[in-house]
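Example 4.3 (complexes with small molecules)
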Amino acid sequence: MIQSSSNSPRQSENAATVTATAHPNIALVKYWGKASEARNIPAVGSLSLTLDGLATTTRVAAADEDRFELNGDTDASMGQRAFAFLDQYWPGRPALDIASDNNFPTAAGLASSASGFAALTLAVDSLLDGGRDRESLAQCAGSGSGSAARSLFGGVVRLDPPAQRDGDIRVRQVAEASDFPLELVIAVTSAARKPIGSTEAMRATAATSPYFDAWVRDQAQDLDAAEQAVAARDFDALAAVTEKSCMKMHAVMLGNDPWLLYWNAATVACIHEVRVLRASGLGVCFTIDAGPQLKAVCLPEDADRVAETLAGVDGVTDVLRASLGRGAFLHSA
Ligand code: PMV
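Answer. The structure with PMV bound is encoded below.
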């Protein structure tokens, strides 16, 4: 349920601060590549899990001049990106004071841009309009960061690219968090910011990887397989398509010229551990994003064993846990 931070569902420019929280999401069927960079429209659909536990909380208020703080510090480059995004959707907006906090490492392949843009969109919409439905909010957040569109919804979420050229992305919830309880165990192998951002990396893939066309061509098949596996609560089928999609995405960028690899030695060691655990009968599979962290998707009864094992892998500096959570929400006043 969307809650308003005032008694009125519409908040005016001079209303007090609006606060929104969004959780990151982790794609099982991956998005990689843009159909339109100007509108930030993905070339392929994706299917993701919205997490709980990890969160971005963003406070927005009208101000005399634009200010942007991330985790308590002024962040000029993130601020520039955020305000350019806001200008697109709220032309003529008032100056805004924005303070955003992540309770997990930023820009390290933990989907902080997804939760960041989802929380920002919801907070600013509430402060200035309050009129958009979830689909439109997702449309808007997705133009800031492709994966952010998915964080507006909870549980398992599917995003499809526009049906027609110049159309809109389509985002919908495939299952509630409680329909298919899954746990995430995230093996952090480096908290450093990634050396190359996803937009630049995707641009290089589309321009130089010989595998890009095949990646785009087969994506709908993987999406349908994943959605069916979720509908049937079939963990093994979901595991198979999850690992296939992850490995294909990284294979596509290995084909970039120059090649691109986000993994480190510990990432690879974790992949092998997950294989061993699954071969021993545990419900676990892995996925990896534009960073070196490995995300193990687990059946709840197996998550403790997976967490213990990954914590013992050389080079794993931290293990984070999450289950499935809700879409972005506003705080009550
Ligand atoms: O939303 P972006 O531009 O940060 O791209 C995210 C891409 C991946 O995380 C690698 C895959 C995905 O679908 O989330």
